């Protein structure tokens, strides 16, 4: 049972991480700094609960705020560049944060033992949950409540003017400028919001694992962060959730019986997924199909239509597969 | 004495930096032609070095030829990256190729870990010894990799600026549509670019292996980051820029290590990148500041 | 209203715009014409703020706006359309209009939350008018990318109007249109003018320009060679030589 609870915790935290990259991606920026922001949130909130004895929620919010502040500061110089330059700049920043914590010592004696972050050793004994008698189940519920709040807020934001503005900037910066939008303000805001969400994710991560070190926030994690929304598609927040469940639940845990080979499959599947569905697993077209199917399913008048829709969906998948094969054949024949 | 040590670390860094230049050129070549970043590049380079070593052992050739073997293997990996990550993905999805090359990076990394059981492999050191100039020492192996790297760069420059193939590459990078109308096959030029950059990567991988004395999958992540930093500092798409930036990063890295120690070294390399982004976002030789 | 004073833009050695001075009066439709490569589009981009001038001034209602960013110029009442339509294809028709910032200062003084999230009082009305004007009310929730070419042009025009500009820059709005569509465009431009918006029209299509504009400026090789009423410009010797020359010959 604890295994599944743990898995749910991982999925929850990674969903938050993916959502933090989702917000930034909407404006057309690829940020590989999300793991760095997560690290800042993790260390700050853990230091607050362990060293300063804060309560959890204020500590999480402060951790998020600290990450947001750093994200805002990074935003300004990094936004002088666009596209691929930004990828490199944020990648370097994320690594710099990780290396900072690799060199960061701040320990104080508490009840006979020294606690606090200690360079490469990391930060042990983040015992807020056990000390306050939380069960694993309660921790999982708390994490998913946070995920629920963030997802609802982002879903609502997507449907408000902000969503349109973020997407407009992501689609065509020149047109967005000419429609009167302040590009710097929009992009830095998105970066800051992304930083906040990543910071909260880091705080939750630190408290449920009870031990963090710089290696937990490496390039691979940053890559995961952008992989979720890209794989899931940018049409809405559920794509990101679906991608996290697919990667963390299915590829990493579900395929554990494959042993070492599972990791090989993981990279190969990403390559394959991008070849088959370059717009993401749940792109706009698929989403609108799915939504209309759902609507019909809920409407009794369309009961039989729903079944037909499901069959059509299967046919679609078959056609897609055939197209892919034809494409490969054509490519090799030519 | 301190001054001599500082000079010594700069000299070592400059010599080793030539390998960063090669990696930077590989990134920049692909960017110049396709306006895409191939995140799997450094991984493919290291894999090329591994494969070169394996080929060498299988064929029982003298150690010096490991570079040529790695170059060939690297070219194959470069082409493979193109076929798997770029060929079938439409240009209208820029994020998709970024992600597919990241997938490729993970795949190559895992294959290497899997086949070597995660253990470092000893790599033949081609030339040892020291050359002393007064109180100044030049490491023979570093001199050797510097020489090979310079030769590889010269060959590349010749290829790009003196042959028809290079002309086609430059034409495609500047005006892809016009080049196509002139009868150049975009796919072929792209594939060739990946093959050439892969060959360079194989050379770079084997040089790094012989300088360090061993190969490990742990080399991949830092090499990816450093290569990208070199590319940006040099100016995206600029080959001479990448050469200068590679030497600069190599030297700066050693100076930071000398002054602040090995654990903090890379933080300052990242800061160097940010200094460039703020004050010279187009890079050393980038014409178009920060735009693509 | 709008004044260009010795405006210059050089790209390397090329003088795309060279010492151009113009005055556009409030409430008029001003045409800017010239052969290909004469610097018309560069001039529009300079006025809109996508390019910064090498030297010279751009003055709007007495205020020097030469160094302001594009969005600040929109806030001061300059909106534009593009020669090659630039809509947000993955947004709906309504969202395309919704994105456009309102110029109105009173609106800007409103609190941030409604302005960014659910819209201010009067927003719905303002955007409704723009939507009505585009004639796309029945396609409100369609993606912009799925509209026909003519509909996209209309939507782009409506988006520019949604920011309630004082000055509207139209960059070749008739490109790719047939005779009937151009007639409709003519009527639209007049309606915009009648609503109190000054229009600066850059156009290749001579019939439209001659019919709709009050005054015309002619550019050639980045320099202004003539300015005046359509009739005056048509009879100007320099213009004939540089531009209508082939037609006159």
Could you explain how this protein is built, in words?
The complex is a heterotrimer of chains A (334), B (292) and C (249). Chain A has 334 residues and is mainly alpha-helical. In chain A, 75% of the residues lie in helices and 2% in strands. In chain A, helix 1 (2-26) runs antiparallel to helix 9 (183-209) and helix 2 (34-50) runs parallel beside helix 4. Chain B has 292 residues and is mostly helical. Chain B contains eleven helices and four strands. Chain B has helices spanning 2-34, 41-59, 66-85, 94-116, 140-162, 164-174, 176-181, 186-212, 220-234, 239-260, 262-279; strands at 121-122, 130-133, 136-139, 214-215. In chain B, strands 1-4 form a two-stranded antiparallel ribbon. A two-stranded antiparallel ribbon of chain B has the order 2-3. Chain B is globular. Chain C is of the alpha/beta class. Chain C has helices at residues 40-48, 70-75, 93-99, 105-108, 112-118, 123-134, 149-162, 179-194, 206-212, 230-235, 237-248; strands at residues 2-11, 14-24, 29-33, 55-60, 63-64, 78-80, 167-171, 198-202, 215-220, 223-228. In chain C, helix 3 packs across helix 6 and helix 6 runs antiparallel to helix 7 (149-162). The radius of gyration of chain C is 18 Å and the shape is globular. The relative contact order of chain C is 0.18. The mean pLDDT of chain C is 87. Chains in contact: A-B, A-C. At the A-B interface, helix 4, helix 10, helix 12 and helix 14 of A face helix 4, helix 9 and helix 11 of B.
């Amino acid at each position: 049972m604890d295994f599944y609870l743990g898995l749910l915790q991982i999925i929850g935290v990674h969903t938050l991480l993916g959502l933090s990259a989702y917000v930034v991606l909407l404006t057309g920026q690829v940020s590989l700094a999300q793991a760095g922001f997560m690290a800042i949130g993790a260390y700050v909130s853990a230091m607050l609960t362990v060293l300063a004895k804060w309560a959890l929620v204020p500590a999480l919010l402060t951790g998020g705020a600290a990450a947001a502040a750093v994200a805002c500061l990074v935003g300004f110089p990094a936004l002088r560049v666009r596209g691929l330059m930004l990828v490199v700049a944020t990648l370097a920043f994320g690594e710099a944060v990780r290396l900072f914590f690799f060199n960061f010592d701040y320990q104080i004696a508490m009840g006979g033992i020294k606690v606090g972050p200690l360079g490469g050793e990391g930060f042990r004994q983040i015992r807020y949950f056990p000390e306050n008698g939380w069960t694993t189940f309660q921790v999982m519920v708390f994490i998913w409540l946070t995920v629920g709040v963030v997802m609802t807020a982002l879903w609502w934001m997507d449907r408000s003017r902000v969503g349109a503005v973020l997407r407009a900037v992501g689609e065509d910066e020149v047109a967005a400028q000419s429609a009167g939008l302040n590009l710097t303000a929009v992009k830095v805001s998105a970066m800051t919001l992304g930083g906040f969400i990543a910071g909260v994710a880091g705080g939750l991560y630190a408290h449920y694992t009870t031990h963090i070190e710089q290696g937990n926030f490496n390039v691979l994690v940053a890559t995961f962060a952008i992989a979720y929304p890209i794989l899931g598609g940018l049409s809405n927040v559920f794509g990101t959730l679906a991608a996290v469940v697919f990667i963390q639940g299915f590829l990493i845990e579900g395929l554990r019986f494959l042993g070492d080979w599972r990791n090989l499959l993981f990279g190969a599947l990403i390559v394959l997924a991008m070849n088959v569905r370059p717009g993401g697993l749940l792109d706009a077209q698929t989403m609108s199909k799915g939504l209309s199917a759902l609507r019909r399913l809920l409407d009794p008048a369309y009961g039989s239509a729903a079944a037909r829709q499901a069959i059509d969906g299967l046919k679609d998948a078959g056609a897609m597969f055939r197209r892919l094969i034809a494409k490969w054949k054509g490519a090799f024949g030519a | 004495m301190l001054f001599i040590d500082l000079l010594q670390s700069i000299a070592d860094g400059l010599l080793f930096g030539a390998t960063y230049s090669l990696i930077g050129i590989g990134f920049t070549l692909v960017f110049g032609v396709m306006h895409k970043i191939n995140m799997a590049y450094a991984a493919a380079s290291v894999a090329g070095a591994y494969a070169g070593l394996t080929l060498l052992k299988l064929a029982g050739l003298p150690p010096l030829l490991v570079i040529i073997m790695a170059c060939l293997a690297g070219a194959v990996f470069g082409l493979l990256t193109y076929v798997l990550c770029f060929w079938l993905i439409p240009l209208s999805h820029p994020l998709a190729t970024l992600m597919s090359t990241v997938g490729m990076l993970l795949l190559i990394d895992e294959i290497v870990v899997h086949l070597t059981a995660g253990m470092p492999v000893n790599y033949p050191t081609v030339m040892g010894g020291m050359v002393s100039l007064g109180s100044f020492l030049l490491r023979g192996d570093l001199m050797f990799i510097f020489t090979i790297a310079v030769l590889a760069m010269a060959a590349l420059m010749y290829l790009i600026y003196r042959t028809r193939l290079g002309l086609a590459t430059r034409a495609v990078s500047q005006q892809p549509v016009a080049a196509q109308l002139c009868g150049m096959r975009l796919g072929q030029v792209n594939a060739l670019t990946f093959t050439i950059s892969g060959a360079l990567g194989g050379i770079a991988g084997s040089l790094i292996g012989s300088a360090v004395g061993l190969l490990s999958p742990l080399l991949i992540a830092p090499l990816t980051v450093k290569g990208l930093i070199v590319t940006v500092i040099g100016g995206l798409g600029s080959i001479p820029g990448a050469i200068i930036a590679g030497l600069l990063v190599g030297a700066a890295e050693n100076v930071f290590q000398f002054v602040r120690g090995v654990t903090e070294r890379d933080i300052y390399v990242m800061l160097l990148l940010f200094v460039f982004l703020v004050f010279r976002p187009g890079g050393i030789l980038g014409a178009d500041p920060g735009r693509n | 209203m709008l004044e260009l004073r010795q405006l210059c833009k050089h790209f390397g050695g090329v003088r795309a715009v060279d010492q151009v001075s113009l005055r556009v009066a409030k409430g008029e439709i001003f045409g800017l014409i010239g052969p290909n490569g004469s610097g018309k589009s560069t001039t529009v981009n300079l006025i809109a703020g996508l390019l910064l001038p090498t030297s010279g001034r751009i003055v709007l209602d007495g205020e020097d706006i030469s160094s302001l960013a594009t969005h600040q110029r929109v806030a001061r009442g300059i909106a534009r359309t593009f020669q090659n339509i630039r809509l947000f294809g993955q947004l709906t028709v309504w969202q395309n209009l919704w994105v456009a910032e309102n110029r109105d200062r009173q609106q800007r003084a409103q609190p941030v939350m409604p302005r960014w999230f659910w819209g201010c009082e009067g927003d719905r009305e303002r955007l409704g008018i723009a939507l009505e004007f585009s004639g796309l009310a029945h396609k409100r929730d369609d993606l912009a990318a799925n509209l026909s070419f003519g509909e996209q042009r209309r939507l782009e025009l409506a988006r520019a109007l949604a920011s309630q500009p004082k000055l509207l820059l139209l960059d070749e709005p008739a490109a790719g249109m047939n005779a009937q569509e151009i007639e409709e465009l003519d009527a639209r431009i007049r309606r915009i003018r009648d609503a109190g918006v000054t229009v600066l029209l850059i156009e290749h299509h001579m019939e439209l320009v001659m019919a709709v504009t009050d005054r015309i400026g002619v550019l050639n090789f980045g320099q202004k060679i003539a300015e005046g009423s359509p009739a005056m410009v048509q009879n100007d010797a320099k213009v004939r030589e540089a531009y209508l020359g082939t037609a006159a010959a």
